[in-house]
Amino acid sequence: MSQTYVTPEEAGYEESRITVLDHFFSEQIDKDVLYGASYCMARNGKFFSKNALGRFSNGTMQENSLKTDSIFPIASITKFITATAFFRLVEDGKVRLSQPVSDFIEEFLEPPFHQITLTHLLSHTSGFGVDYGTLPSNGCPNVYECIDKEFSSGGRNWIKASLKSGLYFETGMQWGYSTFGFHILGEIIQRISGEKLTDFIHKNILEPCEMTSSFYTLPIDAISRTTFYNEYQRSRLMEAQESSINKIENKENLWNLIPPGGSGLYSTPEDLVKFGTMLSLGGYYNGTRVIGRKTIEKMTRTYTKEHVKDYCWGQNGVYRRYGLGPDKRFNDDFIYSEDTYGHEGSGRCNLVIDQKEQFVVAYFIPYVKIDLWDAVPLWNTLEIMWSGIL
Q1: In Å, how far are 30, 125, 132, 320 from 129, measured between CA atoms?
Q2: What are phi and psi of 254, to 5 degrees?
Q3: Is residue 265 part of a domain?
Protein backbone atom coordinates (compact mmCIF):
# COMPACT_ATOMS: atom_id res chain seq x y z
CA MET A 1 0.00 0.00 0.00
CA SER A 2 1.33 3.44 -0.93
CA GLN A 3 1.45 5.88 1.99
CA THR A 4 -0.60 9.08 1.65
CA TYR A 5 1.40 12.30 2.05
CA VAL A 6 0.23 15.73 3.23
CA THR A 7 1.93 19.11 2.89
CA PRO A 8 4.53 20.05 5.52
CA GLU A 9 2.18 22.82 6.71
CA GLU A 10 -0.61 20.30 7.29
CA ALA A 11 1.80 18.24 9.38
CA GLY A 12 2.90 21.24 11.45
CA TYR A 13 6.29 21.60 9.82
CA GLU A 14 8.18 24.52 8.29
CA GLU A 15 8.69 23.63 4.62
CA SER A 16 11.81 25.79 4.15
CA ARG A 17 13.74 23.52 6.53
CA ILE A 18 13.37 20.66 4.05
CA THR A 19 15.31 22.74 1.53
CA VAL A 20 18.03 23.27 4.12
CA LEU A 21 18.11 19.52 4.78
CA ASP A 22 18.49 18.67 1.10
CA HIS A 23 21.25 21.26 0.72
CA PHE A 24 23.07 19.79 3.74
CA PHE A 25 22.98 16.28 2.27
CA SER A 26 24.09 17.58 -1.13
CA GLU A 27 27.11 19.20 0.51
CA GLN A 28 28.06 15.93 2.21
CA ILE A 29 27.75 14.11 -1.12
CA ASP A 30 29.81 16.77 -2.95
CA LYS A 31 32.52 16.51 -0.28
CA ASP A 32 32.66 12.76 -0.96
CA VAL A 33 31.66 11.94 2.61
CA LEU A 34 28.44 10.24 1.52
CA TYR A 35 27.50 8.27 -1.57
CA GLY A 36 23.94 9.45 -1.11
CA ALA A 37 21.13 10.11 1.34
CA SER A 38 17.53 8.96 1.58
CA TYR A 39 15.03 10.06 4.22
CA CYS A 40 11.40 10.16 5.30
CA MET A 41 9.57 12.26 7.92
CA ALA A 42 6.12 12.13 9.53
CA ARG A 43 4.33 14.03 12.27
CA ASN A 44 1.10 13.28 14.11
CA GLY A 45 0.74 10.20 11.95
CA LYS A 46 0.96 12.28 8.76
CA PHE A 47 3.73 11.57 6.27
CA PHE A 48 4.89 14.82 4.73
CA SER A 49 8.37 14.51 3.22
CA LYS A 50 10.67 11.97 1.61
CA ASN A 51 13.58 12.38 -0.77
CA ALA A 52 16.66 10.63 -2.09
CA LEU A 53 19.87 12.24 -3.34
CA GLY A 54 23.13 10.91 -4.72
CA ARG A 55 24.31 7.60 -6.07
CA PHE A 56 22.83 4.12 -6.06
CA SER A 57 25.00 1.02 -6.28
CA ASN A 58 23.97 -2.54 -7.00
CA GLY A 59 27.31 -3.71 -8.31
CA THR A 60 28.16 -0.64 -10.42
CA MET A 61 27.81 2.94 -9.24
CA GLN A 62 25.05 4.95 -10.90
CA GLU A 63 25.13 8.72 -10.61
CA ASN A 64 22.10 10.61 -9.22
CA SER A 65 19.98 7.47 -9.18
CA LEU A 66 19.21 6.77 -5.52
CA LYS A 67 15.43 6.51 -5.16
CA THR A 68 13.10 6.93 -2.19
CA ASP A 69 12.14 3.26 -2.51
CA SER A 70 15.76 2.05 -2.64
CA ILE A 71 16.32 -0.69 -0.07
CA PHE A 72 19.20 -0.65 2.43
CA PRO A 73 20.56 -3.03 5.07
CA ILE A 74 19.33 -1.47 8.33
CA ALA A 75 21.92 -3.24 10.51
CA SER A 76 21.23 -2.70 14.22
CA ILE A 77 17.87 -0.99 13.79
CA THR A 78 16.85 -4.65 13.51
CA LYS A 79 17.36 -4.85 17.30
CA PHE A 80 14.59 -2.30 17.92
CA ILE A 81 12.16 -4.36 15.84
CA THR A 82 13.24 -7.59 17.57
CA ALA A 83 12.65 -5.97 20.97
CA THR A 84 9.17 -4.85 19.93
CA ALA A 85 8.36 -8.37 18.77
CA PHE A 86 9.61 -9.74 22.10
CA PHE A 87 7.23 -7.44 23.97
CA ARG A 88 4.35 -9.06 22.09
CA LEU A 89 5.19 -12.20 24.06
CA VAL A 90 5.33 -10.17 27.28
CA GLU A 91 1.86 -8.81 26.54
CA ASP A 92 0.53 -12.31 25.96
CA GLY A 93 1.78 -13.54 29.32
CA LYS A 94 4.35 -15.87 27.79
CA VAL A 95 7.32 -14.34 29.58
CA ARG A 96 8.25 -11.87 32.32
CA LEU A 97 11.02 -9.34 31.89
CA SER A 98 12.73 -10.27 35.16
CA GLN A 99 13.13 -13.92 34.17
CA PRO A 100 16.66 -15.27 33.76
CA VAL A 101 17.75 -16.38 30.31
CA SER A 102 18.37 -19.82 31.84
CA ASP A 103 14.59 -20.31 32.14
CA PHE A 104 14.59 -20.74 28.36
CA ILE A 105 18.16 -21.76 27.49
CA GLU A 106 19.62 -24.34 29.87
CA GLU A 107 23.22 -23.59 28.91
CA PHE A 108 22.83 -20.30 30.80
CA LEU A 109 22.42 -22.17 34.10
CA GLU A 110 26.22 -22.19 34.29
CA PRO A 111 27.66 -19.35 36.44
CA PRO A 112 28.22 -16.46 35.88
CA PHE A 113 25.65 -16.54 33.05
CA HIS A 114 22.85 -17.71 35.38
CA GLN A 115 22.33 -14.13 36.62
CA ILE A 116 21.62 -12.68 33.16
CA THR A 117 17.97 -11.69 32.77
CA LEU A 118 15.93 -10.69 29.76
CA THR A 119 16.19 -7.03 30.75
CA HIS A 120 19.98 -7.32 30.70
CA LEU A 121 19.83 -8.52 27.09
CA LEU A 122 17.41 -5.77 26.07
CA SER A 123 19.47 -3.00 27.69
CA HIS A 124 22.99 -4.23 26.73
CA THR A 125 23.97 -4.64 30.39
CA SER A 126 24.55 -8.42 30.47
CA GLY A 127 28.32 -8.24 29.91
CA PHE A 128 27.96 -11.14 27.48
CA GLY A 129 28.83 -11.17 23.79
CA VAL A 130 29.95 -7.54 23.61
CA ASP A 131 30.66 -6.56 20.00
CA TYR A 132 34.24 -7.05 18.88
CA GLY A 133 36.34 -3.90 19.22
CA THR A 134 33.89 -1.94 21.36
CA LEU A 135 35.63 -2.68 24.69
CA PRO A 136 39.07 -3.94 25.71
CA SER A 137 38.84 -7.73 25.67
CA ASN A 138 39.94 -8.30 29.28
CA GLY A 139 41.22 -11.61 27.96
CA CYS A 140 37.78 -12.59 26.65
CA PRO A 141 37.84 -14.38 23.29
CA ASN A 142 35.50 -13.12 20.60
CA VAL A 143 32.11 -14.84 20.78
CA TYR A 144 31.98 -15.43 17.02
CA GLU A 145 35.45 -17.00 17.03
CA CYS A 146 34.25 -19.41 19.72
CA ILE A 147 31.29 -20.39 17.57
CA ASP A 148 33.46 -20.71 14.47
CA LYS A 149 35.66 -23.24 16.28
CA GLU A 150 32.55 -25.21 17.23
CA PHE A 151 31.29 -25.31 13.66
CA SER A 152 34.75 -26.07 12.24
CA SER A 153 35.07 -29.11 14.50
CA GLY A 154 31.71 -30.45 13.37
CA GLY A 155 29.70 -29.31 16.38
CA ARG A 156 26.38 -27.49 16.25
CA ASN A 157 25.81 -26.20 19.79
CA TRP A 158 26.49 -22.53 19.05
CA ILE A 159 25.00 -21.41 22.36
CA LYS A 160 27.33 -23.57 24.49
CA ALA A 161 30.26 -22.48 22.33
CA SER A 162 29.38 -18.80 22.76
CA LEU A 163 29.63 -19.05 26.54
CA LYS A 164 33.35 -19.78 26.20
CA SER A 165 33.74 -16.04 25.50
CA GLY A 166 32.94 -15.29 29.14
CA LEU A 167 31.73 -11.94 30.47
CA TYR A 168 33.33 -8.60 29.64
CA PHE A 169 32.06 -7.11 32.91
CA GLU A 170 29.85 -7.99 35.86
CA THR A 171 26.23 -8.30 34.76
CA GLY A 172 24.20 -5.14 35.33
CA MET A 173 27.17 -2.96 36.25
CA GLN A 174 28.12 -1.47 32.87
CA TRP A 175 26.81 -0.82 29.36
CA GLY A 176 28.37 -2.91 26.62
CA TYR A 177 26.82 -3.07 23.16
CA SER A 178 25.96 -6.68 22.32
CA THR A 179 24.54 -7.65 18.96
CA PHE A 180 24.94 -11.27 20.01
CA GLY A 181 22.71 -10.63 23.03
CA PHE A 182 19.89 -9.85 20.61
CA HIS A 183 20.62 -13.04 18.67
CA ILE A 184 20.07 -14.85 21.99
CA LEU A 185 16.85 -12.87 22.45
CA GLY A 186 15.82 -14.04 18.97
CA GLU A 187 16.44 -17.64 20.02
CA ILE A 188 14.23 -17.13 23.07
CA ILE A 189 11.45 -15.68 20.89
CA GLN A 190 11.67 -18.79 18.72
CA ARG A 191 11.50 -21.16 21.68
CA ILE A 192 8.54 -19.40 23.28
CA SER A 193 6.55 -18.83 20.10
CA GLY A 194 7.41 -22.08 18.36
CA GLU A 195 8.04 -20.08 15.19
CA LYS A 196 11.08 -19.06 13.22
CA LEU A 197 12.11 -15.57 14.38
CA THR A 198 11.84 -14.03 10.92
CA ASP A 199 8.34 -15.46 10.46
CA PHE A 200 7.22 -14.24 13.89
CA ILE A 201 8.47 -10.70 13.24
CA HIS A 202 6.97 -10.61 9.75
CA LYS A 203 3.55 -11.68 11.03
CA ASN A 204 3.48 -9.54 14.18
CA ILE A 205 5.41 -6.39 13.18
CA LEU A 206 6.19 -5.97 9.49
CA GLU A 207 2.84 -7.05 8.08
CA PRO A 208 0.54 -5.06 10.43
CA CYS A 209 2.76 -1.97 9.99
CA GLU A 210 2.43 -2.39 6.19
CA MET A 211 6.22 -2.54 5.84
CA THR A 212 6.02 -4.05 2.37
CA SER A 213 9.63 -3.23 1.45
CA SER A 214 11.21 -4.83 4.53
CA PHE A 215 12.81 -8.27 4.29
CA TYR A 216 15.25 -10.66 5.93
CA THR A 217 15.71 -12.58 2.69
CA LEU A 218 15.27 -10.36 -0.33
CA PRO A 219 12.81 -11.58 -2.97
CA ILE A 220 14.08 -11.56 -6.53
CA ASP A 221 12.08 -8.48 -7.51
CA ALA A 222 13.58 -6.47 -4.61
CA ILE A 223 17.25 -7.17 -5.32
CA SER A 224 17.42 -4.68 -8.20
CA ARG A 225 16.52 -1.79 -5.87
CA THR A 226 18.75 -2.91 -2.97
CA THR A 227 21.87 -0.85 -2.48
CA PHE A 228 25.36 -1.94 -1.50
CA TYR A 229 28.48 0.18 -1.80
CA ASN A 230 31.37 -2.21 -1.26
CA GLU A 231 32.46 -5.79 -1.80
CA TYR A 232 31.64 -6.83 1.77
CA GLN A 233 28.01 -5.74 1.46
CA ARG A 234 27.77 -7.35 -1.98
CA SER A 235 29.09 -10.68 -0.71
CA ARG A 236 26.75 -10.66 2.29
CA LEU A 237 23.80 -10.00 0.00
CA MET A 238 24.78 -12.85 -2.26
CA GLU A 239 25.28 -15.19 0.69
CA ALA A 240 21.83 -14.30 1.99
CA GLN A 241 20.29 -15.32 -1.30
CA GLU A 242 22.23 -18.56 -1.62
CA SER A 243 21.80 -19.94 1.90
CA SER A 244 18.77 -21.37 3.65
CA ILE A 245 18.17 -22.31 7.28
CA ASN A 246 16.79 -25.63 6.06
CA LYS A 247 20.05 -26.62 4.37
CA ILE A 248 22.51 -27.29 7.19
CA GLU A 249 25.20 -29.01 5.14
CA ASN A 250 28.46 -27.25 5.99
CA LYS A 251 30.03 -24.71 8.31
CA GLU A 252 28.85 -21.75 6.25
CA ASN A 253 25.22 -22.86 6.44
CA LEU A 254 25.50 -23.68 10.14
CA TRP A 255 25.67 -19.94 10.83
CA ASN A 256 22.01 -19.82 9.81
CA LEU A 257 21.20 -21.68 13.03
CA ILE A 258 21.67 -18.33 14.80
CA PRO A 259 18.46 -16.25 14.55
CA PRO A 260 19.10 -12.71 13.23
CA GLY A 261 17.79 -10.83 16.25
CA GLY A 262 20.59 -8.26 16.28
CA SER A 263 20.87 -7.42 12.59
CA GLY A 264 19.84 -8.70 9.19
CA LEU A 265 16.79 -6.74 8.06
CA TYR A 266 16.62 -4.73 4.83
CA SER A 267 14.21 -1.81 4.61
CA THR A 268 13.47 1.70 3.34
CA PRO A 269 13.16 5.01 5.22
CA GLU A 270 9.40 5.07 4.58
CA ASP A 271 8.93 1.58 6.01
CA LEU A 272 10.91 2.48 9.12
CA VAL A 273 8.82 5.61 9.60
CA LYS A 274 5.70 3.40 9.41
CA PHE A 275 7.11 1.36 12.31
CA GLY A 276 8.04 4.51 14.26
CA THR A 277 4.66 6.09 13.57
CA MET A 278 2.96 3.00 14.97
CA LEU A 279 4.90 3.45 18.21
CA SER A 280 4.29 7.21 18.35
CA LEU A 281 0.52 6.67 17.97
CA GLY A 282 0.24 4.24 20.85
CA GLY A 283 0.71 0.95 19.04
CA TYR A 284 -1.75 1.21 16.16
CA TYR A 285 -1.09 1.53 12.45
CA ASN A 286 -3.99 2.37 10.12
CA GLY A 287 -6.42 1.02 12.70
CA THR A 288 -4.55 -2.25 13.28
CA ARG A 289 -3.27 -2.94 16.78
CA VAL A 290 0.38 -3.95 16.86
CA ILE A 291 1.33 -3.46 20.51
CA GLY A 292 -0.19 -1.80 23.59
CA ARG A 293 0.40 1.77 24.68
CA LYS A 294 1.51 0.80 28.19
CA THR A 295 3.91 -1.75 26.72
CA ILE A 296 5.47 0.99 24.59
CA GLU A 297 5.84 3.15 27.69
CA LYS A 298 7.69 0.32 29.46
CA MET A 299 9.94 -0.42 26.51
CA THR A 300 10.90 3.22 25.91
CA ARG A 301 11.33 4.29 29.54
CA THR A 302 14.96 4.77 30.60
CA TYR A 303 15.94 1.46 32.20
CA THR A 304 19.62 1.97 32.99
CA LYS A 305 20.53 3.57 36.32
CA GLU A 306 23.16 6.26 36.80
CA HIS A 307 25.84 3.76 37.84
CA VAL A 308 25.69 2.16 34.37
CA LYS A 309 28.65 3.65 32.52
CA ASP A 310 29.57 3.43 28.86
CA TYR A 311 33.19 2.72 27.88
CA CYS A 312 32.38 1.52 24.38
CA TRP A 313 34.22 2.95 21.36
CA GLY A 314 36.48 5.06 23.55
CA GLN A 315 33.82 6.59 25.81
CA ASN A 316 35.24 7.65 29.16
CA GLY A 317 32.70 6.12 31.50
CA VAL A 318 29.74 8.38 30.69
CA TYR A 319 26.26 7.45 31.89
CA ARG A 320 24.38 5.68 29.10
CA ARG A 321 20.61 6.21 29.00
CA TYR A 322 19.00 3.14 27.48
CA GLY A 323 15.57 1.61 27.34
CA LEU A 324 14.52 -2.01 26.89
CA GLY A 325 15.36 -2.09 23.20
CA PRO A 326 15.65 1.54 22.08
CA ASP A 327 18.49 4.01 22.67
CA LYS A 328 17.63 7.00 24.91
CA ARG A 329 20.81 8.98 24.27
CA PHE A 330 20.43 12.67 25.09
CA ASN A 331 23.28 15.17 25.33
CA ASP A 332 24.27 18.71 24.37
CA ASP A 333 24.19 17.87 20.66
CA PHE A 334 20.47 17.11 20.47
CA ILE A 335 17.55 19.54 20.35
CA TYR A 336 14.85 16.89 20.32
CA SER A 337 12.65 16.26 23.38
CA GLU A 338 14.43 14.60 26.29
CA ASP A 339 12.47 11.34 26.18
CA THR A 340 13.05 10.82 22.47
CA TYR A 341 14.08 7.28 21.55
CA GLY A 342 15.21 5.29 18.54
CA HIS A 343 18.07 3.26 17.15
CA GLU A 344 21.11 3.79 14.96
CA GLY A 345 22.30 1.24 12.44
CA SER A 346 26.07 0.96 12.03
CA GLY A 347 26.35 4.76 11.80
CA ARG A 348 24.82 4.63 8.33
CA CYS A 349 21.11 4.82 9.14
CA ASN A 350 18.93 6.10 11.94
CA LEU A 351 15.34 5.89 13.20
CA VAL A 352 14.28 8.50 15.77
CA ILE A 353 10.90 9.02 17.47
CA ASP A 354 10.06 12.16 19.46
CA GLN A 355 6.98 11.04 21.38
CA LYS A 356 6.24 14.51 22.75
CA GLU A 357 6.18 16.09 19.29
CA GLN A 358 4.75 13.01 17.53
CA PHE A 359 7.66 13.37 15.11
CA VAL A 360 9.27 10.37 13.40
CA VAL A 361 12.24 10.35 11.02
CA ALA A 362 14.37 7.74 9.31
CA TYR A 363 17.36 8.25 7.06
CA PHE A 364 20.11 6.31 5.34
CA ILE A 365 23.52 7.89 4.77
CA PRO A 366 25.97 5.41 3.19
CA TYR A 367 29.54 6.63 3.71
CA VAL A 368 32.19 6.57 1.02
CA LYS A 369 34.63 5.11 3.58
CA ILE A 370 33.22 1.80 4.84
CA ASP A 371 34.66 2.11 8.36
CA LEU A 372 33.70 5.75 8.88
CA TRP A 373 31.53 6.96 11.75
CA ASP A 374 30.88 10.68 11.35
CA ALA A 375 28.72 12.74 13.70
CA VAL A 376 28.25 15.49 11.10
CA PRO A 377 25.94 13.63 8.68
CA LEU A 378 24.58 11.35 11.41
CA TRP A 379 23.72 13.82 14.17
CA ASN A 380 23.69 17.24 12.53
CA THR A 381 20.90 15.88 10.35
CA LEU A 382 18.72 15.59 13.45
CA GLU A 383 19.18 19.24 14.38
CA ILE A 384 18.07 20.33 10.91
CA MET A 385 15.08 18.02 10.94
CA TRP A 386 13.89 19.06 14.42
CA SER A 387 14.33 22.76 13.61
CA GLY A 388 11.29 22.61 11.33
CA ILE A 389 8.75 21.59 13.98
CA LEU A 390 6.13 24.31 14.40
Answers
A1: 39, 10, 8, 18
A2: -60, -30
A3: yes
Residue 94: count other Cβ atoms within 10 Å of its Cβ.
Answer: 12
**Residue 29 placed within a domain:** no
Number of structural domains the chain divides into: 1
Q: Are 336 and 354 in contact (CB under 8 A)?
A: yes
Cα Rg for the chain, rounded, in angstroms? 20
Highest mean pLDDT among 83-87, 219-223, 241-245: 83-87
Distance CA 269, CA 362 (A): 5
pLDDT of residue 251: 67
Q: What is the CATH number of the domain that holds 142?
A: 3.40.710.10
Half-sphere exposure of 216 (CA within 13 A, CB side): 23
Distance CA 278, CA 209 (A): 7
Classify 255 in phi/psi space as left (phi over 0), alpha (psi -120 to 50) or beta: alpha
**Does residue 326 have a cis bond before it (omega within 30 degrees)?**
no
CB neighbour burial string for 228-255, b if at least 16 within 10 angstroms, e if fewer: bbeeebeeebeebeebeeeeeeeeebbb
Q: 202 with 152: CB under 8 angstroms? A: no
Which residue range forms the structural domain that includes residue 335? 70-374
Is residue 161 exposed (0-12), middle (13-18) or buried (19+ Cβ within 10 Å)? buried
The DSSP bridge pattern shows strands 288-289 and 266-267 to be unpaired
pTM over 0.90: yes
Give the pLDDT confidence of 232-243 residue by residue, as tens digits: 666 666 665 555
